[in-house]
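User: Sequence recovery, please. Input:
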């Protein structure tokens, strides 16, 4: 998989019962618009689709070993489905023991670096505390002074099923936040290849992420350094038709942003960015050295400066860019469609030098290129189809749709304005983004949860008159006021034994008579917790237990069993099922074939997970006995 794409997302949803969440189906979980430089003649293909699941899915013969990801914002729905996509499952599998087992297993292998004040865990997720407990420790708060931690980068490490000592790297550079937003996004996917090319700047970018982790003692700091070192000599399959690939991390004090900007020159210019500012657009227009007829801007119809219409032809994504019939689940309606724009791509074409491509997380704003932490991948394409005039050419009605078919021209009269956050909100968010939150549980009696928020002294500018109360996520009735002393806020809260603490604290900020602001912070849990990931898995498995027998049959591809209800798992939905498997094989033989195969260790671990936390049911005991006999035969 080596692609540059525009991708979007359908909206996951939390289902009743408290143990399942996710997209309507894995095929819908992330709609993608892919630049098919080789397979199709149309770059930015309006009708090409793939999924986020494809980005995370291991290559044939491999499984996920670990993943390091970055994002500006994160929500709970996406957090819990990432391990499922990496296991080849869909979000609907959170209802099943197999899904719970994979979240438990792979959730511990994730490290997600996120802007500290942009974690979204809504109240409707409160009944799924055990599910969040399986993956919550993956969240690592990051920040930068006077800016935002804004890169979107994944480093995926896969290991071989047949050769455990062999591993494979995949690099994903995107604009997608780890949320359920339905906007269009851009992504570049690069897979390791023995005869590929090295990517200048890649190792330094991954290592450089370590400096933005709020807690310098966090294990994520070491992980960034180790992955950076490992990537120094790795080669990747080049993007078809694109040369001179580079990857750069930039931020205040770095020269990388300036070097990337210098490359955006040509006879024709295309900027795709949802957020734009006048000074930056004017700078690029002057640098490109072309007139308005050869400059195109694709943006949101929000806060577009008047000068943009003087220097660019301005477009938005058309409301009908994604016909309803392209959505796999018609019942989702508008929720399954791509709405708005979040991609950031800069293309500059010259008649002699090809097209300079910049796919980045940076908006066309001064913040994006001078203050934030951002990532960009750049290259040069010689193909005529990637020349800006070719991309923006209007096709005939009877011809195949082009990228231009997705766009409607935008006028100044159609531009809306957004109301900025109050100054106290911006200042409070800036301070909290850099906080290190720790929750220490003391056994008692009484049992106490002590919360401390430590801030960096050079970033501490707490607005006057703003007060904070805090409660552990999911327990809004257990609320305390945090008291400020120097650069620390702290407070003690009495809690019941066995309370299902997750590593998240909910802060409520109040200033005067205005509406309160809620911010969720990732919190390190220490001390006498008496609620572990194993307990969370046991609770979830117990809730899923009534369907366990059918699920085992489904997992091993045995057809014709179960109650025949509409919720019964089918062979078709299971990536583990192989079409050539004979459906008449008894389940015991199916088990033996799987546990004696090349992926035996993983299969045994999966079945152990499926049978975890069984109750006293006679049928459950039969399954457990059968599995004990099978394991005895393996010795």
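Assistant: Recovered sequence (635 residues):
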């Amino acid at each position: 998989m080596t692609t540059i794409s525009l991708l979007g997302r359908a909206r996951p949803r939390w289902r009743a019962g408290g143990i399942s969440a996710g997209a309507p189906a894995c095929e819908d979980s992330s709609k993608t618009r892919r630049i098919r430089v080789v397979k199709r003649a149309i770059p930015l293909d309006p009708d090409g689709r793939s999924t986020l699941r494809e980005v995370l899915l291991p290559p044939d013969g491999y499984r996920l070993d670990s993943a390091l990801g970055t994002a500006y914002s994160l929500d709970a729905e996406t957090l819990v489905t990432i391990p499922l996509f990496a296991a080849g499952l869909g979000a609907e599998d959170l209802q099943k023991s197999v899904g719970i087992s994979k979240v438990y297993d792979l959730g511990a292998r994730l490290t997600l670096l996120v802007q500290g004040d942009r974690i979204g865990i809504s109240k409707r997720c409160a009944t799924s505390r055990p599910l969040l407990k399986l993956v919550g420790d993956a969240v690592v708060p990051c920040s930068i002074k006077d800016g935002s931690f804004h890169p979107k980068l994944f480093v995926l490490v896969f290991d071989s099923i047949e050769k455990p000592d062999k591993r494979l790297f995949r690099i994903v550079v995107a604009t997608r936040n780890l949320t359920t937003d339905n906007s269009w996004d851009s992504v570049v996917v690069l897979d390791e290849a023995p005869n590929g090319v090295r990517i200048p700047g890649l190792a330094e970018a991954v290592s450089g992420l370590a400096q933005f982790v709020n807690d310098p003692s966090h294990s994520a700091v070491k992980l960034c350094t180790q992955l950076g070192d490992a990537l120094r000599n790795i080669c990747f399959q080049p993007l078809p038709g694109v040369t001179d690939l580079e990857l750069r991390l930039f931020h205040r004090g770095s020269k990388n942003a300036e070097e990337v900007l210098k490359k955006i020159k040509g006879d024709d210019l295309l900027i795709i960015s949802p957020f734009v500012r006048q000074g930056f657009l004017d700078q690029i227009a002057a640098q490109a050295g072309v007139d308005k007829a050869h400059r195109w801007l694709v943006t949101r119809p929000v806060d577009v400066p008047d000068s943009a219409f003087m220097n660019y032809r301005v477009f938005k994504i058309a409301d009908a860019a994604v016909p309803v019939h392209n959505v796999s689940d018609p019942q989702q309606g508008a929720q399954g469609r791509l709405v708005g724009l979040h991609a950031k791509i800069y293309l500059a074409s010259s008649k002699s030098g090809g097209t300079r491509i910049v796919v980045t997380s940076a908006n066309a704003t001064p913040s994006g290129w001078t203050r934030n932490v951002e990532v960009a991948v750049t290259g040069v394409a010689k193909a005529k189809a990637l020349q800006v005039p070719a991309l923006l050419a209007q096709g005939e009605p009877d011809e195949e749709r082009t990228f231009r078919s997705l766009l409607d021209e935008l006028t100044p009269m159609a531009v809306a304005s957004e109301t900025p956050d109050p100054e106290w909100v911006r200042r409070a968010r800036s301070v909290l983004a850099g906080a290190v939150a720790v929750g220490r549980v003391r056994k008692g009696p009484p049992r106490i949860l002590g919360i401390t928020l430590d801030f960096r002294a050079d970033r501490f500018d707490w607005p006057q008159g703003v007060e904070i109360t805090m409660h552990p996520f999911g327990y809004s009735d257990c609320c305390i006021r945090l008291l400020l002393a120097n650069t620390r806020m702290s407070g003690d809260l009495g809690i019941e034994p066995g309370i299902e603490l997750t590593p998240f604290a909910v802060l409520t900020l109040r200033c005067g008579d205005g509406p309160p602001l809620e911010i969720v912070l990732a919190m390190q849990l220490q001390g006498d917790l008496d609620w572990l990931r194993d307990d969370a898995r046991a609770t979830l498995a117990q809730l899923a237990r009534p369907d366990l027998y059918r699920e085992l049959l489904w997992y091993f591809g045995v057809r014709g069993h179960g109650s025949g209800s509409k919720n019964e798992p089918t062979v078709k939905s299971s990536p583990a099922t192989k079409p050539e498997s004979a459906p008449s094989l008894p389940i015991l033989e199916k088990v033996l074939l799987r546990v004696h195969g090349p992926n035996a260790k993983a299969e045994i671990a999966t079945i152990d997970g499926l049978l975890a936390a069984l109750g006293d049911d006679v049928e459950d005991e039969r399954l457990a006995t059968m599995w004990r006999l099978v394991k005895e035969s393996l010795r």
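The chain has three domains: 3-414, 423-531, 534-633.
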